[in-house]
Design a protein that fits this description.
Structural class: alpha+beta
Shape: globular
Number of helices: 3
Strand content: 25-35%
Radius of gyration: 23 Å
Largest sheet: 5 strands, antiparallel
Helix content: 10-25%
Number of strands: 5
Strand order of the largest sheet: 1-2-3-4-5
């Protein structure tokens, strides 16, 4: 039979005591100043070996647009360097967004960024 933990509540807490209790910091939790986005670090447009334009997001990740069956898609994909040829090739990790999904992402990006700063 599984153990059931019983939570004990102390009714002697006053409102000032509750303010003194701080949540425990998680191991991987970043400080707010580390999560701020620097606007002066905007990537510039680059061109790959095949002449396709993309923007580098860092750590081998790229964002670019493509057409498939007459529709435009936005791709965010991880790239790796092929050891034999030395060329950058797309990896398995990535996401493809259609026009509606891309517009939804842009619409909530500012709200999401503000929520992260709080």
């Amino acid at each position: 039979m599984p153990n059931k933990r019983v939570k004990k509540y102390n009714s002697d807490f006053s409102s000032s005591d509750e303010e003194d209790i701080k949540p425990k910091k998680l191991k991987n939790e970043k400080l707010p100043e580390q999560t701020k986005i620097k606007s002066d670090n905007i990537p510039e447009k680059e061109i790959d070996d095949e002449g396709n334009e993309y923007f580098s997001l860092g750590r081998g990740r790229r964002i670019y647009s493509s057409f498939f069956k007459g529709k435009r898609y936005i791709n965010i994909r991880e790239y790796y360097e092929d050891k034999k040829s030395g060329k950058m090739k797309p990896g398995n990790k990535g996401i493809t967004l259609n026009a509606l999904e891309w517009n939804n992402l842009k619409a909530v990006a500012d709200q999401f960024h503000l929520a992260l700063e709080q």
